[in-house]
Amino acid sequence: MPIRQLDRAAIRREARELIRTARVSPIKFTLLFLAVSLALSLLDTALTSLTGRIVGVAFVSVSFASILIGLITQVLDAGYKCYCLGVHRREEMPYESLFDGFTFAGKVIALYIVEGFFVALWSMLFVIPGIIAVYRYSFAIWNLCQNPELGVMEALNRSKRQTIGYKGQLFGLHLSFIGWYLIVFVIVGVYEGVILALMPDSFLGIMLGSLILTVLTGVVDIYLTPYFALSECGFYLRATAPEEPPRQDRSSYTPEF
């Protein structure tokens, strides 16, 4: 498949249009996604704060629960990507589609583990090969969400082929959102430099601080999350779309007799 130069501005413009016109509002859908993620994050923070105070079987149980929460978060992220694919197809994606990833949760978790392993191996060589590996496998989760019948290795191998010639373009798309992430960085800096110092050094203080940080960053994330995800989804669909056959110029057509 020939490599095409994708229009980042058009991709982002389409994402903004979808945010306005989708049948189920991406803003409201993201609010549900962030609310569920917040609940899981607070639970994980609570469990993590206990690991230093318990030992034995209780420690193993809490550690296992924390890992399980991380895996559930990955499955929810897959459901969010399923929603984005549906929005790009102009389908009505109900709020329950956030949990669509649970129908193939085993593959999502296996992909998360295998991809992480491959990226870690490349990262052992140097930082740059690790970053390239991240982009090499970046389409794998989209492949799986678009076709849950795929195997994990097939999704990864397809991504390796699909991203040939597009890794730099995808990096450029991600880089175009740097202004948004600088806003988040400033919010986190204010939190750590001012608000965190006012929090009591206790379990309640840890939970309250985590809640405040999530709410503050959520003000930006509620728009940035669908904007970024729909843009990335649009890039994936354009990069993997089959090439249109050239149109025949009928004006120069001469019939044969």
Radius of gyration: 22 Å
Instruction: Assign a percent range to the helix content.
Output: over 70%
Please summarize the sheet with the most strands.
none
Integer average pLDDT: 88
> How many strands?
0
Derived from helix and strand composition plus strand pairing, the structural class reads mainly alpha
Order of helices and strands: HHHHHHHHHH
> How large is the share of residues in beta strands?
under 5%
Low-confidence stretches: 250-257
User: What is the first-to-last residue Cα distance?
Assistant: 36 Å
Question: What is the general shape?
Answer: globular
Number of helices: 10
Could you explain the architecture of this structure?
By secondary structure, the chain is mainly α. Helix content is 73%, strand content 0%. Helix 2 crosses helix 10 and helix 3 packs across helix 6. The protein is globular and about 60 Å long. The chain has one domain. The C terminus is likely disordered. It has ten helices and no strands.
Question: Layout of SSEs?
Answer:
Elements: H1 8-21, H2 26-50, H3 57-88, H4 105-125, H5 127-136, H6 140-146, H7 152-162, H8 167-175, H9 178-198, H10 203-240
Salient structural properties:
single chain, 257 residues, mainly alpha, 10 helices, 73% helix
